[in-house]
Amino acid sequence: MKKVLPTLFFMVSLICFSQNKTIDSLENVIKNYKTEDTTYIDLRTKLVARKMFLTPTDSTWMDYNLKTLEISKKLDYSKGMVLALNSIGIIEHYFKSNPLKALDHYQDAYTIIEKHPELDKYSVGVLTNIGLIHYEQQDYKKALTSYKALLKYPIHRTNTYFNIGNIYGHQKKIDSSIFYYKKAIAVADTVKQILHIANIKSNLGLVQTNGGYMVDGLNNTNQSLELVENHKLEVLRVSAYVNAAEVYLKNNIIEKAEYYATHALELNKALNNMATKNSALATLANVYESKGDYKKALTAFKEHIVLRDSVINADRKLEISRKEIQYEADKDRAISQVEIERQKSIKNTSIIGGSALIFASLIGFILYRRKQEAVTKTKEAEFNAKVSDTELKALRSQMNPHFIFNSLNSIGDYILKNDTKSASDYLGKFAKLMRLTLENSEKSEILLSEDIALLKMYLDIERKRFEQKFDYTIEVEKSLDPENIMIPPMILQPFIENSIIHGLSQTNKKGSIIITFKKQNKMILCSVDDNGVGREKTNSITYLENKKSMGMAITKSRIDIINKVKKTKGDIKIIDKSQGTRIEVLLPIQLVY
User: Fold this and answer.
1) N or C end of the chain: which has fewer CB within 10 A?
2) What is the pLDDT of residues 133-188, one digit of tens each?
3) How far is CA 384 from the centre of its chain?
4) Kindly report the CA angle at 24 between 22 and 30, in degrees rounded to 5?
5) At what angle are helices 448-465 and 420-441 packed, to 10 degrees?
6) How far apart are the first and last CA of the chain?
7) Which spans in 191-313 are helix H?
8) Burial class (CB in 10 A: 0-12, 13-18, 19+), 325
9) Of residues 321, 289, 485, the one with CA closest to residue 392
10) How many other CB atoms are found less than 10 A from the CB of residue 371?
11) pLDDT tens digits, residue range 512-551?
12) Distance CA 133, CA 144 (A)
């Protein structure tokens, strides 16, 4: 589901597009205002609230907000600093697609709010924007917790309901998503918030369509587009077009789907929003496939895959996790410093009061410092665990493009040979394999039975690609229950790929791959055995003496991290045979129950 711009409406007044005269008047007042005081700051933030989202491609907004922040700091005007920092964060977040920089500004704004309780009403917008970064990085559990906590602010429930609906939509909890979208529309309708209604209906239409409510989905999509056109809602046009393209595609209205997808890409050139471009390209790839234009479909799909791995990048998740933990650590240190200063003050007073009180204060201080050290060690342990987990996700995410591009090249070969029937058949099987692969890529472990099904599908596709040049068998020891054993997804795929490409493809005889899963003490031994030319001949043929398979290197790193996290002794062995190669991967046995 496409993520539109749900938080652009926080910390700003709802834009009323009939107030152009008011905006012009406000600009004139600011232009003629001669004193840089708090009133001047308030006027500037009001203009940002009314106009910035009308002209999101205007690059001068960054300098404008930076100047507001600079003047606010000179005046020590906390409200001005909070609003300016939030607006700068929004520009980095949405206009420049840089959530890492945005997170810095949001957190700076929230730090100021924490020091000034009278600014609490502004915490809603800042916390929502921070929550949305979790949402965009697909950390839905953390984002959902943040948004549900915001329901205590009645005035902002439209946006909160909307964001909760978005999360449930991405989790494929269709009925829950629709429920919260409708609650959001009901609240927005009571005060005629046209911008909100159009935005919500766009997402609601897509979710209903994905859930099989085709008529309702199409109706809400059309209503959203009408609102965008009638009220000139330019800030929503691109995202509404992307959602509409997907809805029309699923309703098999191909021409309209192509129209809105291509226009979304054209309009997005000025914004350069990667997430929007990514969604539009994915839709276009499906549109071209439906029209039988497989060459264009492949081109669009390749570009979508590259962009998708930039939008949802595990390294970015790691950096965000580091920033969050660093932010909490800095805050704890600041609190600790304040407490230390307080303890010093108590100590000085105690000297006057008597030696007994001094001794008590000293003991209290020591106990406090011990507590702080324990807290610091706990946070460090949590940080290391989170880094290990995120690095593991990063490695899994690297495996996807490595595998995907090899498969896309095979489809490209068919297209270049004008074998459209084979290309279409291969693309269909590949799409099914991709769906399963992407569903499993975010999981640390999957059932052995699921991984075997994935490997069978992959091997069937590769057999077709290499014109049945090899056969394969998959054997599972009777003592193992594939429905009760969890293993890391795609752990054997790189070795099978190497067997096919570098071993079996170099021989003229019929190839064979034997994949086995056996129990070895408290570990599971997974092996890939082929009768190819072997590593020595492969190196001499392909001149790869000094190069390593990227997939194999990633798998080795994955196992090293699993060993670190689970304190196990997983390993990889490469055994050279007289005819072919055998790979053995030793993993800890993880039972479902």
Assistant:
1) C
2) 888 777 888 888 878 878 877 777 888 888 899 888 888 899 999 999 999 999 98
3) 21
4) 100
5) 160
6) 34
7) 194-210, 214-230, 234-250, 254-271, 274-290, 294-311
8) middle
9) 321
10) 11
11) 999 999 998 889 999 999 988 877 665 544 433 333 455 6
12) 12
d(CA 208, CA 221): 10
Q: Is 201 left (phi over 0), alpha (psi -120 to 50) or beta?
A: alpha
Distance CA(37)–CA(407), nearest Å, equals 62
Cβ burial 34-63 (10 Å sphere, 16+ → b, else e): eeeeeebbebbbbbbbbbbbeebeeeebee
Please state the pTM of the whole predicted model.
0.46
Structure tokens that stand for 552 in this block: 């194999």
Q: Which residues have a Cβ under 8 Å from the Cβ of 183 and sit 6 or more positions away?
A: 157, 161
Q: How far apart are CA 427 and CA 415, in angstroms?
A: 11
What the block records as the tokens of 416 is 């270049």
Distance, CA of 132 to CA of 112 (rounded, Å): 20
Q: What is the DSSP letter of 14?
A: P
Torsions phi, psi for 517 (to 5 deg): -130, 120
> Who's near 52: CB < 8 A, 6+ residues apart?
12, 58, 61, 87, 90
d(CA 3, CA 170): 9
Residues contacting 320, CB < 8 A, separation 6+? 99, 100, 103, 133, 137
Distance between CA atoms of 46 and 33, rounded to whole angstroms? 14
CA distance 529 to 514: 5
Query: What is the strand order of the sheet 470-476 is part of?
Result: 470-476, 511-520, 523-530, 581-588, 571-576
Number of Cβ within a 10 Å radius of residue 169: 25
